[in-house]
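---------- Forwarded message ----------

FYI, see the Sugar ABC transporter permease record below. Original note from H. follows.
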Amino acid sequence: MRHGKYPFVTGFLIAPVTLYAIFVLSPYVQTIRLSFHRWRGFTTPRWAGTENFERMLQADRFWQALGHHAVMLVFLPLLTIAIAVVFAFMLNVGGAGRGGRTAGVWGSTFYRVVFFLPQVLAIPVVAVLFATVYRPDRSGLINGVLLRAGMDEPVGFLIDRHLALPSIIAVLVWQAVGFYVVLFSAGMANIPAEIYEAAELDGASKVTVFFRITLPLLWDTIQTAWVYLGILAFDAFAIVSVLAQDNGGPDGATTVLGLEIYNFMNMSRYGDATAYSVALCVLSLVFAAFTLRVSRRETHEF
C-alpha cells in the first residue's frame, strides 16, 4: 500500500495541475513574453527588448499612478483594519456579559448583517451608487445635506484633484470593512473565552483587553488582512474607472496602473499594456513579501 500511494496521488494531481498550468501559469508566461515585443493585437509581435519598460519608466503617468498606489497602500489597509478590528471587538467582546462571560454589544447579530451588506454588492454597483452620493449638486446625497444645512457651495468630491483620491479610498474602505469584520470576528472566536474572563476578573478595562489581549492574539489574521488589502489597493481599476472623472482625472489625480493598462489596450498598444501588467504583478508580489517579512512576530499559543 505504501508503494502504491504515489501513483494514486499523482493520478489525482495530473488533472488540476494541468488545468492550473494552462489557465493560470500560461497567461503569465505569455504576458511576460509579450512585454518584450511591439504588438498591436492584429499584427505579428516584433521583438523590442526592454523598450516597453524603458518607455514606462520615463512616463509621468506611470509614476503618478504609482504614487496613488503608495497612498492607497498606506491608508486603505490602515483605515479598513482599524475600523474592522474595533467593530469586531465590540460585536464579540465589547458588551456587558452575564455571569462573568464575555459578550458583544446588544444587537450584535443585526450589526453583523448590516456591516456585511456592502460586501455582497459588486464593485461597479458600489461605484455607481457613490457616483450619486458624491454628485456636486443638490441631487448628491452628501452635498444635498450640506447645502440644506447652510453651506454656500457644493463640495466637488470627484472633481477636486485634492479630494478625488481620498473620496475613492473612502469608497474602498466602506466596501471592504464588512468582510474584515467577519474575518476578525472569526479570529476572536478562536481566542479562549477564559482569557477574557480572567482579564475581567483582574479588573482590566475594555481598552486594556483590546490592546493587551485581542490585538496580540489576532496578529496573524491582521497580517493576512493587510496583504489582501494591499492587493486590493493595486487592483483598484473597477472603482476608479467608474468614479474617476476624465479617465483618471481630474488632471490624472486618480489614475492607477490598471487604468493605464486599459488605456493602452484601447489604443492597441499591447506591448506597453503587458509591460505595465508585469510591473503591477511584480509590485504586488514585492509588497506581499515585504509585509509578511516586516510584520512577522512570535506566534502566541493558547
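H. also flagged this: The radius of gyration is 24 Å.
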